Hints:
Order of helices and strands: HHHHHHHHHHHHHHH
Low-confidence stretches: none
Distance between the termini: 38 Å
Number of strands: 0
Strand content: under 5%
Radius of gyration: 21 Å
Shape: globular
Largest sheet: none
Amino acid sequence: MLSFKYNCLYSFIGNALFSFGLWLNVSVIAKMASVEAVGDYALANAIISPLFGLFSLNIRAAVATDVRGQFEYREYFATRIVTSFLCAVVIGVIAVVLERSYEILATMIFLTMAKCAESFCDIRSALSLKLNNMKPVAISLGLRGIVGVVSLALGLLVSGSLPIGIACLATSWIAVYYFYDRQIAKGQLDQEEMVPEYSSVRKIIWLCIPLGVLLLINLSINNIPRYFVSSWLDQKALGYFAATTYFIFLGSMFMNAVALPLHQSFSKCFESDLQRFKLMLVQGVGVALLLGVCGVLMSVYFGELILTLAYTKEYAEYSYLLTWTMVASVALYCSVMLGTAITSTRKFKSQMLANLPVPVVTVLFLFAMQGTFTLVTAAQAILVAYCTKLVVQSGLLAYLLSQKEKSSVRNSLP
């Protein structure tokens, strides 16, 4: 078991490499393909990522916070097999029904393969997270971030085709899982125990559905405006919007890297030391605010330079979108920390219900602005969504803490 300091370090390095690799994927497509190709990639991601978020049920968080041993690890793993298969089937049906170009449909299929590999890497790393050993997780994330972007670049260089590039990326992620992640927790996954037990899988699914819906909501916040840009404007506009606003995802990955090792600590403190829980929360939100403010200042003073270096010069004129994105990121980063604290309480259903208004408010805002819809409106929708999310999370966490304090007082009475 590694110390908390080293776990945070490994988590930060691994997530930094992975998130940087994901951002480089967009940069490589922008530099080696076209703005429309960036739009196709963004649309495919916008369709697939929320679905995988829903069907993943965020089982990794459930494993990490299962301090009482409610289910065995192999039962969680069997559940991931079932849900990943169902998700791939649903995406396949959508790809057939969706009347889009060959490039988008082929990109969706290969991206689904990559996401399946990622989902199995994720559940393997969940045990390492529970055992407070972030080193294997960091190595897996780093490998996928590095080999993924290299494979994508080679595929684009050889073929000039986005689907071929994504196919190469998917192949590299599958290889990382097979040769590295598959060895993690191998001793706890004997072949004769891999047959899913219906009762256990059903219980885990019912327990984690709120986490899956919550992850769907979180991933939809950035993607809902993309649907409207693609529908009301065009793929080229979506390419500029997706590339510019992708920096908020990059920042959220860094925040998740900071928050990931805290799941176990938050869970234990919520059970036995609420003062320590509150102190950790205040410190985490402080880090989030600092990171967010730095992002805003960077976008104001160096936005054009950042976009020129990251993509091409034609993206620089959209630096105002980057500033709006970084303003929204302040609320997002704080939300990540509050979400980590709430998840650690294992009040999954309450967390889901509290966040249901977020996508509704986002969609209503976009429809209200339909007559004057621009890329700025789409960026403002992200800000509205994360501010709404921050408000409902703050209210829910305050309620959970007050209930826990009342329960502690009752238990202390003779």
